[in-house]
Specification:
alpha/beta; 22 strands; 5-stranded parallel sheet; 16 helices
């Protein structure tokens, strides 16, 4: 290609002299009326806006879907690039003086003999955009804490298109795990293995998913799926519903029974602060997933995670860039960890273009307690220079030929280890992906799972918004538990066998080692044993005196009223 700088005429037309055997490439520009992500004054401007409201007693501030302007196509031809003078300067500073416009041509079309430069340029641009958007999010978070206090609640999802694919690559560099929040939050149909890792990334036990639909029934299903997967529902009014009058988008939800289910799940929050236990981490090469000239564009390991989740071996999906943020760690016993989660198996998925820091970490992990599996080569670093990652990982990393082989190998390992399985998450069709709908794992509305602190959680919410009957006997950690309740049951045992915590919706009776309760009428009940051995409890939906069987457990009970059903 021959690039010539042309002075455009007023009619928008230009003229290039014909040259045999050569072609012309026209790079056109048009302006967007949107903030420049790389503007040097943007952080100061953002802080100024926040300070204007600092005198108000706000509980927190929100910012969602930040990044470059929305692009629903994800730029499949890779021929459109964001540009500003400030962005070009940042690119030049990161690349040793390279020109962004010139490299845009290289990234789009490629040039013979410059394949490595092209790969490096794409990696560089993706990392630059992720880093800048993450810095803006982080400064927003810190400015909010400074203005409204350390307890200001700063959440709201960083996801825009709720799928880790081309639209997010282009909008924010897939900055979900780098956009600082007080809790992990997502929206709409974000894959559950991404939701669970976000909960652990931000150090809070729960993940909230902002959800909307045209009808009320999908909200109820989303609520109970969330409860089974360690999450909660962030209720968005019914949408799109232009036929409804003002206020009806909310009131129809109030009348659906959804609030009764939400209230019932409060018993879980009383007894635990632990996230869902996912024994597998699928760590995808962040640069490789976003590099359209590389070997595994738009693949983040969701197929592996979904297949394992379907078998009951739950998996977190996360980017390798977490290592650059020092979020992933290896604990004193040699296990790879994210937050409170200790992984029994780690899948290193398509690590091409990861660099020395990532390689040093996984070389240590390969010699540790978490079983390490690798799918895909590791022959180049971030700058597309030769890197023999396979040799440096050594025999401690098991190489899998493809996704299916990896799923089989991880499943076999966990099965031999006798790891208990959660209820399987079948793959469900969503409307997001590179070329239309894709399938990924989603929990059912009934089943069981476990939390990282050893809490067993049983959920039933398929038929009734407030929960379905749970009248059964199950085994957990060597204990037999017989229960008659509604919607949710959770139990945790001490190392000495005593019940450390218990919660149930609509409890009638429960019997296990060291605990036998039968109530005169159903009520939502929870209690937890403190470090001093004494129990404190929560009682919801019970009028009159506290039942004598509960007083035998504890004299310290907190009472909560149930919300009234809207008619």
């Amino acid at each position: 290609f021959v690039a010539q700088r042309l002075i455009p005429r007023r009619d928008g037309k230009g003229r290039v002299p014909a040259q045999a055997g050569r072609g012309a490439c026209v790079i056109a520009a048009h302006a967007y009326l949107t903030p420049d992500v790389f503007a040097p004054h943007l952080l100061a401007y953002q802080r100024g806006l926040i300070r204007q409201y600092a005198d108000l007693p706000l509980a927190g501030i929100m910012k969602d879907e930040w990044g470059f302007p929305p692009d629903h196509t994800g730029n499949p031809k890779h021929d459109r690039f964001w540009f500003s003078a400030a962005m070009a300067a940042a690119y030049a500073a990161r690349s040793g003086g390279r020109d962004l416009v010139r490299d845009a041509l290289l990234m789009c079309a490629g040039e013979a003999g410059r394949e490595g430069e092209r790969l490096a340029a794409i990696n560089r641009l993706g990392a630059l955009c992720r880093g800048r958007n993450a810095a803006i999010e982080d400064d927003f978070y810190r400015a909010g804490k400074e203005a409204f206090g350390k307890d200001a609640f700063i959440v709201t999802h960083a996801t825009w298109t709720p799928f880790p694919g081309p639209q997010e690559f282009r909008k924010n560099g897939l900055s979900w795990w780098a956009a600082t929040r007080d809790i992990g939050q997502s929206d709409e149909s974000t894959p559950y293995p991404c939701r669970t890792s976000l909960a652990k990334r931000w150090g809070y036990p729960l993940e909230y998913n902002q959800f909307y639909a045209k009808e009320t029934a999908p909200y109820v299903a989303e609520l109970w799926r969330g409860a089974l997967s360690g999450g909660r529902l962030n209720v968005h009014p019914l949408y799109p519903r232009p036929d409804l009058k003002k206020g009806e988008r909310d009131t129809l939800l109030f009348r659906s029974g959804l609030m009764a289910g939400m209230a019932r799940l409060r018993v879980l929050d009383f007894i635990t602060r632990a996230p869902l236990d996912c024994p597998v981490a699928v760590v995808f090469g962040h640069a490789c997933a976003m590099n359209w000239a590389g070997p595994s564009y738009n693949r983040v390991g969701l197929e592996i995670a979904s297949a394992l989740c379907a078998e009951g071996y739950l998996a977190d999906v996360m980017p390798s860039s977490l290592l650059l943020d020092d979020a992933l760690r290896i604990d004193a016993e040699g296990y790879v960890c994210l937050g409170p989660q200790r992984y029994r198996a780690v899948v290193l998925y398509q690590p091409e273009y990861d660099g020395e820091k990532e390689l040093a970490f996984f070389a240590r992990a390969a010699a540790g307690k978490s079983a390490l599996f690798r799918v895909g080569g590791w022959t180049k670093d971030f700058d597309a220079r030769p890197l023999d990652g396979a040799a440096r990982l050594g025999a401690g990393a098991r190489v899998c030929a493809d996704d299916a082989a990896c799923v089989a190998a991880v499943s076999e390992l966990l099965n031999k280890a006798g790891l208990p399985r959660a209820t399987g998450w079948p793959a469900q069709l969503t409307g997001w992906g590179q070329s239309g709908s894709v399938k990924h794992a989603a929990p059912p509305t009934e089943g069981h799972s476990a939390l990282t602190d050893g809490t067993y959680v049983r959920v039933a919410g398929t038929k009734d918004p407030a929960g379905d009957p749970i009248a059964e006997t199950f085994e957990w950690q060597g204990h037999t538990v017989a229960v008659d309740a509604v919607g949710v049951v959770a139990i945790r045992f001490e190392p000495d066998g005593r019940v450390a915590a218990f919660a149930a919706g609509g409890l009638k009776r429960v019997k296990t080692d060291g605990l036998a309760l039968e109530l005169p009428a159903r009520a939502d009940v929870a209690f937890v044993r403190g470090a001093d051995g004494a129990c404190r409890g929560l009682l919801q939906g019970c009028d009159g005196d506290i039942p004598a069987p509960l007083l035998a457990v504890s004299a310290d009970w907190r009472r909560l009223p149930l919300p009234k059903q809207r008619q």
